[in-house]
TrEMBL record:
Keyword terms: ATP-binding, Ligase, Nucleotide-binding, Purine biosynthesis
The protein's name in its UniProt record: Glycinamide ribonucleotide synthetase
Annotated PROSITE patterns: GARS
Family membership: Belongs to the GARS family.
Keyword Ligase on entry: yes
Single biological process term from Gene Ontology: purine nucleotide biosynthetic process
Residues covered by the Phosphoribosylglycinamide synthetase C-domain domain: 108-201
Cross-referenced InterPro entries: PRibGlycinamid_synth_ATP-grasp (IPR020561), PRibGlycinamide_synth (IPR000115), PRibGlycinamide_synth_C-dom (IPR020560), PRibGlycinamide_synth_C_sf (IPR037123), PRibGlycinamide_synth_CS (IPR020559), Rudment_hybrid_motif (IPR011054)
A molecular function (GO) term: ATP binding
């Protein structure tokens, strides 16, 4: 069964060892052409976020889908690195005055999602979560609330991904350690992918890409 994304990671240079700047530019051009085509067909200029999902193949970059929203969990990786004011950016999108350059910090990030046990087939809902906020701060991890609800002062699970735990550092290895330590600050009937952002997983992705391209 399919799940929502259980984690995401980004390198300090905002690329990947298996994704080149040229690959990114190809995807970006596809997105620009799509926005232009929408305006040409409807007469309406698209204003908002456009989340493009692409796949790198032996025959180049291929489009899977577009979504009119930020990526989930990818937004958790990029927004904390944003140097500019997010609200100002949103207003600039609406007013058509968006600057050509928006700056992000040069940091690596790893985000790991915690989901209820049994997700996605038979998730355990209404389970209480205990979050050690003080320890999260000491570790330097960030916790993002997703599909949970509050009853009084307590947080409970629903039927989907519950919490995103983010680590930020100068290297992917350090960011992954922070994220994993942050996961340890959460108690409850949850599970997560421990391999997200690890050197072993990254090496597997590199080897897989090399096998496709060579």
């Amino acid at each position: 069964p399919n799940t929502g994304g259980m984690g995401s990671y980004s390198m300090k240079d905002h690329l990947m060892p298996f994704i080149s700047k040229d690959d990114v530019n190809v995807a970006l051009e596809d997105m620009k052409k799509t926005v232009a085509a929408v305006k040409a067909e409807t007469g309406v200029e698209y204003k908002g976020f456009l989340y493009g999902q692409f796949m790198k193949t032996a025959n180049g970059i291929k489009l899977i889908e577009f979504n009119s929203r930020l990526g989930d969990p990818e937004a958790m990786n990029i927004l904390p690195l944003l140097k500019d004011n997010f609200i100002d950016i949103c207003w600039a999108i609406i007013n058509g005055s968006l600057p050509k350059t928006i700056e992000f910090k040069k940091k690596a990030t790893v985000c790991k999602y915690l989901a209820p046990e049994g997700y996605p087939v038979n998730p355990k809902k209404d389970e209480k979560l205990i979050i050690d906020k003080e320890r999260l701060v000491k570790i330097g991890a960030k916790c993002y609330y997703a599909s949970v609800y509050r009853d009084g002062r307590d947080i409970f699970t629903t039927t989907s991904r519950a919490l995103g735990i983010l680590g930020i550092s100068d290297s992917l290895e350090e960011a992954e350690i922070i994220s994993e330590l942050g996961v340890g600050c959460i108690k409850g009937k949850l599970f997560h992918r421990k391999d997200v952002g690890t050197r072993n997983l990254l090496q597997k992705r590199i080897e897989h890409m090399n096998s496709l391209l060579n």
